[in-house]
């Protein structure tokens, strides 16, 4: 849910926001809406939503196709506006088009866009550019042990909230003296307060008991010290939720020995990257966990660990679970809850069948088998579907 | 920043095996070495007492010069004394010195100060699955070489605008070449086949890009060793699913911290893995994950294995190989006995029991020992 979705829209304002008019008044109306419910971007043309789709590279395009197939099959009232971003081009036109499309539609589903190391350093990461331009400040990843997947750890249920726009990913680097590179890690009070607030609100909304802040304030005293201080400040306003902090190295060690102790975790960008990958590994791998990036006005959904998967592209062996669960998060965001739960149930029932596990889970199933099985499961539960 | 010139590190030949790195400081006074001992905080003092006990018992020709560092003081006198002592003796064994968050930011981390002043540029941690310890992953044998002096730990931070903090992460060509060279030489010496560089060059293109480039440059000089690179997030994910694929890993400071803690967790916890910090002229040994262990201090439940194995590494460094192997064998044999496992590996044994069992084992091997 975006920030706005947590506030309530009073009935009186609804008539103002019909169809295309809302887009014209979008910016100025925003301030009015602060005290009211967030309405997801209004459905247009007879109740159908338009969502930007960015296929990306590697396994992105094939998985995006499967999502579209599934949505068409289930008669989900969502139309996808496909925007291709070519990662090999040095100009930023492609990504700017994509950003404009997302501003227009408000919601997007994306695959990971590759960042080629061989291109010059002035070429910024496209994914990063997208996140910072749209100010998608919260990356939320919910790692849960799935019943059908055998892992070394059981009963994991961790929600990771990661600051998505600043920290080590500021892309501010320079080489004053040849051979000496300085990278700037930026931590600001406003953004730290914002992400901490988001974390606690989400914890409260989901009925979670504990929030852990992950930091390295013994070494980066000013930077992570500021982050920690902001978290403590926000924690005071949520007395029913217990707050503690843990240094990132101890956190990673605890995660591999006893991950069940963690509930909600909030952290700056780089630690979030590493911790979320560790958790994804603990629950079964990158093919299973969806991720969401929320901002004030926009939401972009993708796989949790943002892998391009170049080595398994177009081989029908990628695990579609993460992308499909991300699309369910998308449907939840658009308030199409019935469709979301139906697809999610089908996915989870398919994941319990070991013979359908793809290679990353240790099985031999193919992507199309998995998707087919999901569609079968949906059809058997009775809602209106197209023929298979 | 000091102008560091890259000197090739010395090699010595002992029994036709090329030994890496430093000449140990010469033994003094009839063959006895003097080693600086910094007890630190938390479980440090009690574990180092046990080390001294075991050394005294096994008649190891090492004398400890104890230097206390008070972490509550704001002045740097204590840590400077410790550094001088290490410069004098060349070798040290230390417990972790606590860094209180509540003190002013100008009070730098004492451990970090020690490492940078003595230029202990390589932190080496060898994670191996121990037979007697039950873990979820088996057959792990990873050597982690972490740059120890620069990177994110430069302690250079400032708040130019109120509410906006900038932390500087420094990567230099010299230090990156140095650590890469160290990693490859160590890999060759230990007969390892593969070195993996861990980085985040897709985001930090200049910084980690430079590190990666230096690693590649050095790799070209070692055609017998395979070199590959992996982004840190993928690395951590692979570590928790398939850690057996890694052999030697080299990385900058912060990733090294996190990856080494993950590996320590995989092989059984912070109580089992020793770590070593090597510089051109000095070597300091400690537990790999540098925990203070305040909550278990003075309760006789800490696991002495990591500290004792670190002391064995120190003995190897001083070329007292016989003593090193005898103590190491004793420690590993004791590790096989489940009833002696301490709380961190799921048992109920006390530190004292473990140490006594080690001493009994050393005595049973027939070497010269004091009375128990």
UniProtKB/TrEMBL annotation, chain A:
Heterooligomer of subunits alpha (IDH3A), beta (IDH3B), and gamma (IDH3G) in the apparent ratio of 2:1:1. The heterodimer containing one IDH3A and one IDH3B subunit and the heterodimer containing one IDH3A and one IDH3G subunit assemble into a heterotetramer (which contains two subunits of IDH3A, one of IDH3B and one of IDH3G) and further into the heterooctamer. The keyword Manganese applies. It comes from the Eukaryota. GO terms for molecular function: ATP binding; magnesium ion binding; NAD binding; oxidoreductase activity, acting on the CH-OH group of donors, NAD or NADP as acceptor. Residues 50-374 form the Isopropylmalate dehydrogenase-like domain. Belongs to the isocitrate and isopropylmalate dehydrogenases family. Regulatory subunit which plays a role in the allosteric regulation of the enzyme catalyzing the decarboxylation of isocitrate (ICT) into alpha-ketoglutarate. The heterodimer composed of the alpha (IDH3A) and beta (IDH3B) subunits and the heterodimer composed of the alpha (IDH3A) and gamma (IDH3G) subunits, have considerable basal activity but the full activity of the heterotetramer (containing two subunits of IDH3A, one of IDH3B and one of IDH3G) requires the assembly and cooperative function of both heterodimers. It is found in: Mitochondrion. Its cofactor is Mn(2+); Mg(2+). GO terms for cellular component: mitochondrion. This is Isocitrate dehydrogenase [NAD] subunit, mitochondrial. Keywords: ATP-binding, Magnesium, Manganese, Metal-binding, Mitochondrion, Nucleotide-binding, Transit peptide, Tricarboxylic acid cycle. GO terms for biological process: isocitrate metabolic process; tricarboxylic acid cycle.
From TrEMBL, chain B:
The keyword Ion transport does not apply. It is found in: Mitochondrion. Its cofactor is Mn(2+); Mg(2+). GO terms for cellular component: mitochondrion. SUPFAM superfamilies: Isocitrate/Isopropylmalate dehydrogenase-like. Keywords: ATP-binding, Magnesium, Manganese, Metal-binding, Mitochondrion, Nucleotide-binding, Transit peptide, Tricarboxylic acid cycle. One of its GO terms (biological process) is tricarboxylic acid cycle. The keyword Transit peptide applies. Pfam families: Iso_dh. One of its GO terms (molecular function) is NAD binding. It comes from the Eukaryota. Residues 34-358 form the Isopropylmalate dehydrogenase-like domain. Regulatory subunit which plays a role in the allosteric regulation of the enzyme catalyzing the decarboxylation of isocitrate (ICT) into alpha-ketoglutarate. The heterodimer composed of the alpha (IDH3A) and beta (IDH3B) subunits and the heterodimer composed of the alpha (IDH3A) and gamma (IDH3G) subunits, have considerable basal activity but the full activity of the heterotetramer (containing two subunits of IDH3A, one of IDH3B and one of IDH3G) requires the assembly and cooperative function of both heterodimers. Heterooligomer of subunits alpha (IDH3A), beta (IDH3B), and gamma (IDH3G) in the apparent ratio of 2:1:1. The heterodimer containing one IDH3A and one IDH3B subunit and the heterodimer containing one IDH3A and one IDH3G subunit assemble into a heterotetramer (which contains two subunits of IDH3A, one of IDH3B and one of IDH3G) and further into the heterooctamer. Belongs to the isocitrate and isopropylmalate dehydrogenases family. This is Isocitrate dehydrogenase [NAD] subunit, mitochondrial. It comes from Xyrichtys novacula.
